[in-house]
Amino acid sequence: MTRWIEHAAIVLAGIACALLFIWLLRFRTPARAALCRGPSRPWLYAFLPWNWFHSHRCDYDLSGSLPDAAGQVTCPECGTRQVRSTRRRRPNRRRTDRIALVLLLIALPCWKVRWIRAGNWAPYTPTPVLLAIEHAASSHTPGSVREQLRARAETMSSVWRAWLCRIAVGELRDDNISSNGDWAMDVLTTSLPQSLPMLERSLDSTDLQQRQAAGMVLMRLIDGDPHPWNDTRLPKLPPNYTPPHRLIEVAVEGLAADRVGWDAGFFTTNYLMAFRYLIHHADSATGELEIALGSDDPQQQLFASAIVAISRHPALAPRGASNLLAHMASDAEEANALFAYQALFRMGDDAIPILENAIAVEPDQDGQRARAALLLVYRLRGTPITDAESRHLNRISQYNDPAQSRDSWMLRMLPPLATADE
Ligand SMILES: [Zn+2]
Predict the structure, then answer these.
(1) What pTM was computed for the model?
(2) Read out DSSP for 45-67?
(3) Pick from 48, 70, 214, 396: CA 20 to 30 A from residue 261's CA?
(4) How far apart are the CA of 59 and the centre of ligand 1, in A?
């Protein structure tokens, strides 16, 4: 298709050159005065495009006609009464020059179609034009338009930045355009003080992806990047900023297994962001977490249990720990036993009585859960055990110490052990 468009450009340019040649030929005839103007037409005719390329002048030579008493002549060709024109001109009914110009104007973008499609024009385009293009046709704009807008987000004037934020908030929605959500989250992060009210409003959106993405941007701004190796410079929130309680609700909702699960451009997904956020803010999420502990969604229930255990929530931690114990029984989900083990390990001494109760009801200690629970008690109490004993008890990880295993995304989102042990 691209090649055909380029070929069409050559054809159009050829026709234009031929027309220009024809136009030049008319200069062989000398210009004459007193050519009939033709009947006058309403000025509205000038707006009809076909009139731009075709002259309605009559061009009959009136030099021989005699003026009447009023000094006017009547054209024998078209019957128009007029004062004889003194301006010298050549008859020119077809505006070949204009037709050639238009053909050349069409041929040029056809010839540069690859350049246009690649968006190489974006760096030379003013910001409002880029915004208008992104606003009107976000699904068809080349990536370079978004790249330019992202690069200019920090320096553009506040009027344009407000427009950019509105576009970005809209693109957080669930749509079929790839990677525009990442771009939008990035833009909303960089244009911080202005994007804040829009992000907070988006938490109430009816579109799941939109409210989850807005929640992720806010959580990242509040808690920082989820990975220490990601050293992007995050803008600072206004001092004494308190996020709306709705953010807690969106976070708890995000713990569930949903279709949002995208890599948000900063190496995480909504449930892992929510998981980390709620560990830091578990005390203000008691009601929501209590409901999530009994959730039908296994992922939401597992994460909520780990959150209350790791944050040592005064009211909910024991319930979370019992849930985690149940998850240690089998590896139904990927690494969930290991995840439960590590969460209980971070709960510290508070987990010991719960673990000992579980061991007591399973006296033969043969199952995966009982062995893991016993190993946990040894580790938490600091009881020295031999490698052979540890291997016998550890059925959940190929590492000798399951607490050190970090080989899945889920485990990497757990808070580092050094701080959890304090
Ligand atoms: Zn005439």
Answers:
(1) 0.72
(2) GGGSGGGGSB------B-TTSPP
(3) 396
(4) 6
